[in-house]
Amino acid sequence: MKVRIALAGNPNSGKTTLFNELTGSHQYVGNWPGVTVEKKGGNYKKNKNIEFTDLPGVYSLSPYT
Fold this sequence. Notes:
Blueprint: E1 3-7, H1 15-23, E2 40-44, E3 47-54
Parallel strand pairs: 1-3
Antiparallel strand pairs: 2-3
């Protein structure tokens, strides 16, 4: 059974840096918000049954405008 974990949070909070460390990826990072514009997926480098998804930053998970 594959475990899927989404990295969600505020913009410019280190989600992609954590994703790169956990998966061994080399996704582009910057010190300003808006660098990640689409989701990226990768398997945990120590256990291929764990999949991480790096999401763009959001200020709220509530569905209101």
